[in-house]
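Batch manifest, entry 17 of 40.
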Amino acid sequence: MAIIGELIKKAIDFTGMIMSDPDPVEAQKKVLKELLETAKFTAFGKAYHFKDILARDNIIAEFQKNIPVHDYDKMHGDWWHYLLEGHQNVTWPGGQGYFALSSGTTSHSKHIPVTEEMLASIRKAGMIEIANLKAFDLPGDFFTRQILMLGSSTNLIEKEDHKEGEISGISASNLPAWFGGFYKPGREIADITDWDERVKKIAEQAADWDIGCISGIPAWVELMLKEIISYHNLNNIHDIWPNLMVYTTGGVAFEPYRKSMEKLLAHPLIYIDTYLASEGFMAIQKRPDTMAMALFPDNGIFYEFVPFDENHVDEDGLVKEGAKVLSLGEVEEDVSYVLLISTVAGAWRYMIGDTVKFTDKQKAEIVITGRTKHYLNVVGCQLSVNQMNDGLRVIEQEYDVVIKEFIVAAVHRDEEYIHKWYLSCDKKPDDVQVAESLDKTLRENNKNYNVARGKALKGVEVELIPEEIFYQWSEETKKLGGQVKIPRVMKEEQFLEFGKYVKEHL
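Output type: structure tokens
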């Protein structure tokens, strides 16, 4: 049976047809109008006069003029907490069946509403992703293989009037009935709450599957592959899954993991990037000649963009009052923006926390450039996560090492600041030399950093540690697997606590 081929046929049936891409700007105008029409009689819609906005000639401009920008704390504090208390028609019509728990890179769980309309939006995006596999020039026998989706547990937390879990678990627990036969590890294993036990069960059954495609966050996929290889005493994962050809990645940048991941393979895979967050399925890579991802302009999400600079974003990574906000038709390519979304889950002008850059405005293609709070600017160095990653790729080449995880902070040395880095490393080059090399490449590639190094930023320290310490810390302070990510930038107090943990576990 041509398994993925049948799945693509189902996906085409589900989405109606293989469609040409809509005009992104016009599609976004339509989406905003539909969102406002649907929510105009909710408490939020009445408070912000959605009916009046809909009567205006320029709905987008009126919407931006009258509705404030929200981060999670404001959205939850003003509105979403009522949903958790059982109220209905708060920011979206009806009650609330699900909440996505998202710790992200913070220590406390966020409760993100997930409506039936959002689940439908995620399913549609997933089906488009599957149908789009045809664009990657895969051989015919690929479409006879199975798909392994490694997400969080589908065994959701039962509350009085709703269920809670991570978005990947909620999505997998709401797959169409016909999809159940197409994906692995299957619902029985996916229901297992304990991460280690779930991966062990996957390893035990791996020989019975013919996997052609894997989907999941890189760090946890890599741990799973290592467990399977160890359990079956293999040389690499292709010894047991010879037809594995595709890896759809997401959640974090893949490039830091490529070198170590490919050590587990007999040959490189086709890598396809995706952008699924707790708040919705934002974008997918649609073509093989770029790692940029195309936004879904007509799938229940209205996107806005705030220039990511000191004039528009404060030191805490929050959009400043009165900041310039652009719609999709107004953005420019190669400029970093803070992403805002309004959605069919009742998020309104919501700051998701990511920064993006357009690589092709006409195709609405973006790359994720970092997080608003993963931006090191305590002493004016203006270092983004992308620039940090680029610097570490240079270090990998210079010292022939693999660096997948890192955490950095600006910390005091007496009355001055230095940058302190904890880097995972598979070898043990000299910490001081690595610090000097990293400092040199950052100075060469970031003029603001170079200026800061001549003024308030007085030094750079690096401590190389085993990558397992990052994952142990994540497991003990949060939980392993699922959507949880290692933070890249920390405030000094939190960073010093992490440093204590490192010392205790070295």
